[in-house]
Design a protein that fits this description.
Layout lengths: L2 H11 L12 E4 L9 E4 L4 H9 L4 E4 L5 E5 L5 E5 L1 H8 L3 E4 L1 H6 L4 H8 L3 E10 L2 E12 L1 H11 L5 E3 L9 E10 L4 H4 L5 E5 L3 H10 L2 E5 L6 H15 L5 E2 L6
Parallel strand pairs: 2-3, 2-13, 3-6, 10-11, 11-12
Antiparallel strand pairs: 1-6, 4-5, 7-8, 8-10, 9-12
């Protein structure tokens, strides 16, 4: 099987056309004509993943996060994107990389839907749309709970102890509507203000915490990867079943 054929299989599970328009998905390093001689899944590119791939004759990776690029401003003021040093090492080592990123967030059964199942959300709706009916966020109802109990629920469901809230969250007595978006979703806060009690996502900047206070929206920030790992584990299992072999999935547990 070559990389192009593998891409076709991945695309049946995670249609890449559903990704955000500016996202870097598909074959991000390497060639569709390369033969797949060893395959694994990695949340992102890390030196440990590169070392493991080389030592175990893995020449193809499927990653969630795209390879890192750096913006270069030329003398004439124009901008271009070039590989950073780690991405260059992967390419020079002969590895092929297929990236799924926000396509995995929005697709049926992907990262967002996996969070819906984890939190037993009902009557859910989509926000943060990419194309058509697809979007990266979900909001809906949960069984009524208190803010203190909900914090413990989030820690348990996402297997993390890294939580940060805004001040308004501490004043909420009862919670029965939530929004959740895997990864970093603070740019979509406007979509769910006044629609839910609490919004859970990663990478909330200070000004958005204040925005939540001003608009009476509770905010919970968890580790970025914690919201993505449940859906990615499901993807790895689905792809393993499709290929008839158990794939390894690498992610840095420190950031869970």
């Amino acid at each position: 099987m070559n990389v192009g054929k593998l891409l076709e299989i991945v695309n049946t599970l995670v249609p890449l056309d559903y990704a955000f328009d500016d996202d870097f998905v598909g074959i991000t390093v390497g060639s569709q004509n390369s033969k797949v001689s060893g395959l694994a899944v990695a949340h992102e590119l890390e030196h440990s993943v590169l070392d493991y791939s080389i030592m175990n004759n893995i020449n193809t990776l499927i990653t969630y996060h795209p390879p890192s690029l750096q913006k270069i401003i030329k003398e004439d003021g124009t901008e271009t994107l070039e590989e950073d040093s780690l991405t260059k090492k992967f390419r020079e080592s002969g590895l092929n990389i297929i990236t799924i990123h926000t396509a995995q967030d929005v697709c049926n059964g992907g990262n967002a839907d996996s969070l819906v199942n984890l939190f037993k959300m009902t009557e859910t709706k989509v926000f943060a749309h990419t194309t058509g009916e697809f979007g990266a966020g979900r909001f809906g109802n949960i069984q009524k709970t208190t803010n203190k109990k909900f914090i413990k629920t989030v820690e348990s469901k996402l297997n993390t102890k890294v939580l940060r809230t805004n001040e308004y969250f501490q004043n909420i007595k009862d919670i029965d509507t939530v929004a959740i978006l895997p990864g970093s979703g603070t740019q979509f806060i406007e979509d769910i203000i006044s629609k839910v009690d609490v919004f859970i996502t990663g990478d909330i900047s200070h000004r958005y915490l204040l925005k939540g206070d001003e608009t009476h929206l509770g905010l919970i920030q968890v580790n970025h990867l914690s919201t993505e790992i449940p859906g990615m584990k499901k993807f790895v299992n689905n792809l393993s079943n499709e290929l008839g072999t158990q794939l390894e999935y690498f992610y840095n547990k420190y950031y869970e």
